[in-house]
């Protein structure tokens, strides 16, 4: 594998790890949101934040 190929593979792996971390954070936020269901405005805010964080900067879905 060439040096450039290694760099590309490394950047792809890094991006996959970043996306996994983002989805784990969303899962945690959704769990908190579900636990606090029925608390009104705070629940809606947490769910909205979790949904927004599913969109990565490149406008792709996780």
Automatic annotation (TrEMBL):
Record-given protein name: Uncharacterized protein
Organism of derivation: Parasedimentitalea huanghaiensis
